[in-house]
Amino acid sequence: MSAGRKLVIVESPAKARTIAGYLGEEYDVEASVGHIRDLPQPSELPADMKKGPFGKFAVDVDNGFAPYYVVDADKRKKVSELKKLLKDSDELFLATDEDREGEAIAWHLLQELKPKVPVKRMVFHEITREAIQRALANTRELDDRLVDAQETRRILDRLYGYEVSPVLWRKVRQGLSAGRVQSVATRLVVERERERMAFVAADYWDVTGTFAVQDSAEPSFNARLSSVDGQRVASGRDFLDTGQLRAADVAHLDEARATSLVAGLVDASFSVASLETKPYTRRPAAPFTTSTLQQEASRKLRMASRATMRTAQGLYENGYITYMRTDSSSLSTQAIDAARRQASELYGAEYVPDAPRVYTGKAKGAQEAHEAIRPAGDHFRTPAQVAKELSGDQFRLYELIWKRTVASQMADARGQTASVRLGATAADGTDVLFSASGTVITFRGFLAAYEEGRDDSRYDSSDDAAAEKADARLPRMAEGDPLSASDLTADGHRTSPPPRFTEASLVKALEERGIGRPSTYAATISVIQDRGYVTGRGQALVPSWLAFAVTRLLEENFDWLVDYDFTAEMEEDLDAIAAGDKDRVAWLSRFYFGDGSGNEEGEGLRDLVANLGDIDAREVNSIPIGEGIVLRVGRYGPYLEDSLAEPAEDGTTRRASVPEELAPDELTVAKARELLETQPEGDQVLGTDPVAGTPIVARNGRYGPYVTEILPDPEIDTSLSAAAQKRALAAAPKPRTASLFKSMSLQSVTLDDALMLLSLPRVVGVDPESGTEITAQNGRYGPYLKKGTDSRTLASEEALFSTTLDEALAIYAQPKRGRGATSAPPLRELGDDPTSEKPITVKEGRFGAYVTDGVTNRTLPRDLTPESITREQAIELLVEKRASAPAKKKAPAKRAPAKSKAAAKK
Predict the structure, then answer these.
(1) Which of these is catalytic: 68, 160, 316, 323?
(2) DSSP letter string over 637-665?
(3) What integer is the mean pLDDT of 6-28?
(4) Partners of 27 in the β-ladder
(5) What is the pLDDT of residue 796?
(6) Which helix (H) or strand (E) element contains residue 728?
(7) 221-225, 634-638, 808-812, 902-906: which has the minimum mean pLDDT?
(8) What is the mean pLDDT of residues 521-550?
(9) More confidently predicted of 689 and 889
(10) Is the pLDDT of residue 331 over 70?
(11) Which of the four pLDDT bands, split at 50, 70 and 90, describes residue 699?
């Protein structure tokens, strides 16, 4: 053993590199690259365990919910490397993140490495030289309560997913998943869309005008009609979603009434009926938590939650910000001093209050508290100081965090808010009041550094929203002062449906309800998008019809599992386990087996699934649109059926596919009828093939529109056995079939188009060197050339018919890239990789954009684009890919099989 060697294990290579720079040469800092062990899939269990107690979940539910862990296949090499380093070390520091997940990673490392040297848990919430030195001097023991809390969640999610998901496979569609938080999040989005579908718009009118006092030096201002004969004028917020007024004591103006009021007020005398002023004070927002950071980055930077968390993790691991998974808004004494000092230096001493601001409080259902997300260190670096080190999203997010942190320790914004009412009498004797309000900021305070964003509201055009706008100055005036009116205008409005969730507002809704943990919201939103339950339209989250079917099945058959309050209570119970106030085995037993009372209220998940009864899959997958039209969620997508229409001769009802781009609330009865009437029904006869003499038809199939030929039924000898008849039928000629190009449609496809498509594959020519025929074909992944077993992608569908032999030979002369893809110029060049010393480029591949140094390839995550990725992010992706690459397989030595046994905590 080398004298004095110390092994430090963290999660990520970037974190390892940063920390290594702060430690001496006697420290080896290595990354585990996340978790090294997990619950295996049942199919991955050893053969002798598949029929045992671990066979269903990899968890023995009958013996204390003991989990069985295995080292992930792609982590075996990494574990071997860590064990080798540990043999040469006399001390082990587990420096994973200071939360449940980090504590669990440390525990799994401890269980697998089985160190015989002293082990210390090293924790910190920022990666600076001072913080690392403090962490080394203040190590602690592993916190078993945090490990228990993480393990309980993992087991709970396994039980939930493995019991409920198969029901979705049988009744909705294969490959679907259910989850403790993802199913509830999906339900929130679906319920909002249901509200939009049921919404009935109401029309209302109001009157606005421009008013001025007699002093021409004073500014004019706008005011809105607020009262008619003592009755308040109805605005958008006065209507229910059914289109009816909430109360009868308001004046609902229609176009005729509003127009007549305008005409009657042309010559009316206006005066100030009342004037009220009051001080305006606004406090700064608290420093960022995980949840508020995701919300604000979505509002201000248009960043998805996943992108926000990925970027924040990079900033943390490279020493720019504190730990990004936190539910606390508090700041350390050093951070408060740094923020106050920087605010004073940049904005002046008057912008800093006499006493420091102290923020406390935790979100409902939050995990253990850390410090708020802030710039790292005891002295903050300004955005200007890091501008040359950070770029793109990293710089923008750092700037946002820096501004919010500094502003949180600045003085209140102060000013005056004035509300005025203007009275007049119309020509017909109607008494009216117009209202206006405005705020004048006299001292900007924290607003000089930062102003918190807000989500769009249904009533953003209302007077209340207008009053929030700063610097809407009103002129000096007093009660009884006369005013002149101009530009009196009657305006028509229509109420708006509830706004769809954005990522920001969904995160806020989940946190307010206490559902899940803020640190997992980004992953949850990504999952429901990846599963096809939710899609993005701009910033809005739109549920798919598949989400409607899944949510309905869960609501009707697993009601308490998707109940908002129950899900929040589960989170509180899991927090109690983390605090040591509840026993995890007893809690899991109650959840899975029930309380043993036999009552429905005491039912557990196992009995709930076992006693489901018959679920009508057709009913679950049906959503009534109206007037006999029903939308059905089919295996290959949603389609419409008109149950009141006359059935066809074969008994089928008229159907029409629903375009993917059509949102559920846009599928009205009128739109549904349009789709049913415009989409061709059955075969669309295009004509006869002049060569073969067979009819050519166009159809709408499961995989999209296509053309085919109609062949006569083969004549089969009925005296043959059933098996022989089946073989003869299989040997009969098959009709030619071809999918329509993306530029074609069933409505516009012609016989010539069809014959052209059916002529594929097309012989382009013969390679003069090899004598091999080159053909142009249209396949599952698009158009391509084929020469023997060598395939090359074509640029477009049209190229199938226009590519010449010379062009094909030129394509084959280029070096092959990936699965037959031709060499294409890179989308971007990012500089040299420090490891391989080769140029890093971003390229477009068959499965999307990827980054490569010519040796290692890594597909870009969903939150990164070829335009936004930075060199640092590309380097990090390649490092992670190299670290996770499996070791080359070697021929296994013959030995007796080892007996597998469950890994359980002692």
Answers:
(1) 323
(2) EEEEEETTSPP-TTSPPPEEE--TTS-GG
(3) 92
(4) 6
(5) 86
(6) helix 722-731
(7) 902-906
(8) 93
(9) 689
(10) yes
(11) confident
Distance separating alpha carbons of residues 684 and 746, to the nearest angstrom? 8
Residue 825: its pLDDT value, please? 65
Choose among 539, 513, 512: nearest CA to 525.
539
Helix axes 13-20, 305-317, angle to 10 degrees: 30
The one-letter code for the residue type at 155 is: I
3-state secondary structure of 626: strand
Residue 618 exposed, middle or buried by CB count within 10 Å (0-12, 13-18, 19+): exposed
Q: Give one DSSP letter per residue of 48-99, joined into a string.
A: GGTTSTTTTTSEETTTTTEE--EE-GGGHHHHHHHHHHHHT-SEEEE---SS
What the block records as the tokens of 658 is: 């629903």
DSSP structural state of residue 666: G
- CB neighbour class for 599 (10 Å; exposed up to 12, middle 13-18, buried from 19): exposed
Please report the pLDDT score of residue 829 as a whole number.
81
Cα separation values, 104 from 161, 456, 719, Å: 21, 39, 70
Contact at 8 Å (CB) between 164 and 551?
A: no
In this prediction, residue 701 carries a pLDDT of: 67
pLDDT at residue 1, as a whole number: 43
Copy the structure tokens of residue 456: 């769009």
DSSP string of 877-905, one letter each residue? HHHHHHHHPPPPP-PPPP-PPPPP-----
3-state class of 628 per DSSP?
A: coil
CB atoms within 10 A of CB 836: 14
Q: Is the pLDDT of residue 898 over 80?
A: no
Nearest to 156 by CA among 605, 492, 580: 605
User: What ranges in 486-563 are assigned the alpha helix state H?
Assistant: 503-513, 521-530, 545-557
Considering just the CA atoms, what is the radius of gyration of the chain in Å? 34
Cα dihedral value 412, 418, 419, 421, nearest 10:
180
162 catalytic, yes or no? Answer: no
AA identity, residue 342:
Q
Give me the residues paired with residue 103 across strands: none
* Residues constituting the chain: 906
CB neighbours (10 Å) of residue 620?
20
Distance of CA 64 to the CA centre of its chain: 35
pLDDT confidence band for 457 (50 / 70 / 90): low
Angle of CA points 178, 180, 185, to nearest 5°: 85
For the record, the structure tokens of 235 come out as: 């605005």
Q: Which residue is listed with tokens 């008013």?
A: 211
Q: What token pair was written down for 646?
A: 């006359």
Average pLDDT over residues 52-61: 93
Alpha carbon distance 599, 587 (integer Å) = 18
Spacing of C-alpha 179 from chain mean position:
15
With beta carbons less than 8 A apart as the criterion, state whether 268 and 427 touch: yes
First-to-last CA distance in the chain? 29
Spatial distance between the Cα atoms of 87 and 28, rounded to a whole number of angstroms = 12
Of residues 494, 519, 106, 104, the one with CA closest to residue 327: 519
Q: Tell me, what's the pLDDT at 369?
A: 47
Tokens at residue 875, please? 């380097």
Pick the range with the lowest mean pLDDT from 148-152, 216-220, 500-504, 876-880.
Answer: 876-880
What is the pLDDT averaged over residues 522-533?
91
Sheet strand arrangement including 782-787: 762-766, 773-779, 782-787, 790-793
Whether the pLDDT of residue 506 is over 70: the answer is: yes
Rounded Cα distance between 119 and 116, Å, is 9
- Is pLDDT above 90 for 43? no
Rounded to whole angstroms, the Cα distance separating 66 from 904 reads 6
Structure-model confidence comparison of residues 648 and 671, the more confident one: 671
Distance CA 814, CA 810 (A): 7
Instruction: Measure Cα distances from 642 to 198, 524, 626, 628, 638 in Å.
Output: 20, 36, 10, 6, 14
- List 120's β-bridge partners, or say none: 93
